[in-house]
Design a protein that fits this description.
Blueprint: H1 3-43, H2 45-54, E1 56-62, E2 69-70, E3 76-88, H3 96-103, H4 111-120, E4 129-135, H5 137-145, E5 153-162, H6 170-173, E6 175-178, H7 181-187, E7 197-201, H8 202-206, H9 208-211, E8 216-222, E9 230-232, E10 238-240, E11 251-255, E12 262-265, H10 269-279, E13 284-290, E14 296-302, H11 316-324, H12 345-354, E15 364-366, E16 369-372, E17 374-377, E18 385-387, H13 389-395, H14 398-408, H15 410-419, H16 441-447, H17 451-454, H18 458-464, H19 475-483, E19 490-492, E20 497-501, E21 508-511, E22 516-518, H20 523-538, E23 557-564, E24 589-596, E25 603-609, H21 619-632
Parallel strand pairs: 2-12
Antiparallel strand pairs: 1-8, 2-3, 3-4, 3-5, 6-7, 8-11, 9-10, 12-20, 13-14, 13-25, 15-18, 16-17, 19-22, 20-21, 23-24, 24-25
Pfam families: PBP_dimer (PF03717), Transpeptidase (PF00905)
Protein name: Penicillin-binding protein 2
Domain Penicillin-binding protein dimerisation: 62-228
Length: 649
């Protein structure tokens, strides 16, 4: 055989050999696959079919408990309680809309709102969409029993905000609400999801970044015929419950939620409750503040509301009643601006003394009216006779302060009013604070459109001297103003948040120190004004001081009354002799700005009673009751009905 023929023959032999080996390998591979298929289908088919049918992996979100809020004595003001939240996972419900309709058999909820949430989460079919919050244990149990009819419905135990003081300090603490779409867009990067509750007002709003915490999650194995539920143990640690058949469900992964930080306030719960009780049935506000530090010890606004109604769906009717109440209970009246009335005479008196317009011995004669083109009446028609600045403050003589205002002029009056902190926000942490108004010719020129209205008249200066006309101030501003009389002329910045700590209290994140600036330098003028405020309470000759009802043997009180007209005499048909004969909205506002003894420093206290008539018959009596309660140590938080409900920390 020729050489090239032998070579071709060997190549053919080698080719057939490789082909045979390859065929054997392929046959072995197919045999292994066949054997595996037989194993899966015949020997292990039942097991794997069962696991496929009965097991799924689900990601569950664990809501972080919001941070706790304490008063200055470590009394709880806001905490959390366990609650049940019903949610739907759209990806696990073949027909989410039909499932929601079935769910209505067990509880009431806003189906349109639930549908809106489902639409918003259409790109995240396996996210938990909260449908109803804070459902009862009975409702949760009924849903659990019928879980086969409700595919995709889950029940989770979550912390729910609780306000143990109920309506007490509601405008300080604020309330929560479900996150709005725009808020979610702004906060999504910080871990917020649709259905979260966030602060909407008060402290809950301004301290949201500290209180919110960081939510966690669990990756759990769940059964198609049973719905896992998250439970919280005694320490608040979440775990997965066994299913309805008693089988323990597997937790594949878990991120423990991080609770919000602890916020400690300057509020004194005892004094807050005493102020709430002293306010009685009046609408209005009370502010109690440390005169030296600016620390707010109590802040009351009436009418009030129960913040618990904003986190409990079962109290929808109560919440709607609050929202539709024409008296506007959500309005924090301590931060709203009203005519300050005669409490403003403190400013006029200081300005006149500091400018040398009057001395302690200067006297002005009050005949019952002051003439400037027309007559401006004193509240005492028969007149006070001759009196000095101390007596003018004690008897609240209008004619004396008409005269001082004319001598000062509106520009100097405006200057001194601003030294007392009026016409500008105080800087307290709460939202919605008004600046008030200190009028001036320049302000009037900018404010009014008609040239005839832009002119400043001397008569407007006259009434500005007694806090009437355009002048507006908030109860909180007047609290800071009255504090300057006893703290050496320092204008303090009121504050509520004393300290923010981590949940374990091992790290201080924020600590506030009192802030103040020296505003009033004439100490002799401050001493005279203080004497005038004292005489307003104790004087009996030749006249009774306007705050004479505050005199008592238990606690020292000095202060200035104010009765602010809210309507002209003609408008309110002033022929009426009794307060009840005047329409409520036309009745005067009553003020009493005072200094009372506190346990650790003097307290600046302002009581504002809306449409309550003369100050001496309402605001002064409220102050007396509050001061007496504080002096006697009454109204302790432990004795209140709210505290008896107990709380978790």
């Amino acid at each position: 055989m020729k050489p090239y023929l032998r070579s071709r023959h060997r190549e053919q032999i080698h080719f057939h050999l490789r082909l045979r080996v390859l065929s054997i390998i392929i046959a072995c591979g197919f045999s292994l696959l066949f054997l595996q298929l037989v194993h899966l289908q015949i020997f292990a088919g039942t097991t794997f079919r069962s696991l496929s049918d009965r097991n799924r992996i689900r990601l569950l979100r664990l809501q972080a408990p919001r941070g706790l809020v304490f008063d200055r004595h470590n009394n709880i003001l806001v905490d959390n309680r366990p609650s049940f939240t019903v949610s739907i996972i759209p990806g696990e419900a073949s027909n989410p809309a039909a499932t929601l309709q079935k769910l209505r058999r067990f509880l009431e909820f806003d189906e349109q709102e639930a549908q809106r949430k489902l639409e918003a989460a259409r790109n995240a079919p396996f996210s938990q969409i909260a449908v109803a919050y804070d459902v009862s244990l009975e409702q949760a149990a009924a849903i659990e029993e019928c879980s086969l009819e409700l595919p995709g419905i889950t029940i989770t135990a979550e912390p729910c905000r609780r306000f143990p003081l109920l309506k007490g300090a509601a405008h300080v603490l604020g309330y929560l609400g479900e996150i709005a779409p725009r808020e979610h867009e702004r906060l999504a990067d910080k871990g917020y999801v649709i259905g979260d509750y966030i602060g909407k007002a008060g402290l809950e709003l301004v301290a949201e970044e500290w209180l919110h915490g960081e939510s966690g999650g669990m990756q759990v194995q769940v059964y198609a015929d049973g719905h896992p539920q998250i439970e919280l143990d005694e320490t608040g640690n979440p775990s997965v419950r066994i299913d309805s058949a008693g089988r323990e469900l597997l937790t594949l992964g878990k991120k423990v939620p991080k609770a919000g930080n602890v916020v400690r306030l300057t509020i004194d719960a005892d004094i807050q409750l005493a102020a709430e009780a002293a306010m009685g049935s009046y609408d209005g506000a009370i502010v109690v503040m440390g005169a030296e530090t600016g620390a707010i010890r109590a802040l009351v606004s009436r009418p009030s509301f129960d913040p618990n109604s904003f986190v409990s769906p079962g109290r929808n009717a109560e919440r709607l009643e609050v929202l539709n109440d024409p008296r506007h209970p959500l309005l924090n009246r301590a931060l709203q601006a009203y005519s300050p009335g005669s409490t403003f005479k403190i400013v006029t008196a200081y300005a006149a003394l500091a400018e040398g317009i009057v001395s302690p011995d200067t006297k002005v004669y009050c005949s019952g009216s002051f003439t400037l083109g027309r007559k401006f009446r004193c509240w005492k028609d028969t007149g006070h006779g001759s009196l000095n600045v101390v007596q003018a403050l004690a008897y609240s003589c209008d004619v004396f302060f008409y005269t001082m205002a004319m001598e000062l002029g509106i520009e100097r009056l405006e200057h001194y009013a601003r030294l007392f902190g009026l016409g500008a926000a105080t800087g307290i942490e709460l939202p919605g604070e008004m600046k008030g108004l200190i009028p001036s010719p320049e302000w009037k020129q900018k404010t009014f459109k008609r040239p005839a209205d832009q002119k400043w008249f001397l008569g407007e200066t006259v009434i500005a001297g007694i806090g009437q006309g355009y002048t507006l101030a908030t109860p909180l501003q007047l609290t800071c103003a009255i504090a300057t009389i006893v703290n050496g002329g320092r204008l303090v910045t009121p504050y509520l948040i004393e300290r923010v700590e981590t949940p374990q209290s091992d790290k201080v994140l924020l600590e506030r120190a009192p802030a103040q600036r020296h505003a009033l330098n004439d100490s002799a003028a401050l001493d005279l004004i203080q004497e005038g405020l004292k005489q307003a309470v104790v004087s009996r000759q030749p006249f009774f001081g306007t705050a004479w009802r505050a005199k008592n043997d238990t606690v020292s009180i000095l202060g200035k009354t104010g009765t602010a007209q809210v309507a002209a005499f003609k408008e309110r048909a002033d022929t009426a002799k009794e307060l009840e004969q005047i329409p409520y909205e036309l009745r005067d506002h009553a003020w009493f700005a005072s200094i009372i003894d506190g346990p650790d420093e003097p307290y600046a206290v302002v009581v504002f009673c809306e449409h309550s008539g003369h100050a001496s018959e309402s605001a002064v009596l409220v102050t007396l009751e509050l001061a007496t309660r504080i002096a006697e140590g009454a109204g302790t938080i432990a004795s209140t009905e709210t505290a008896q409900e107990g709380h978790s920390t």
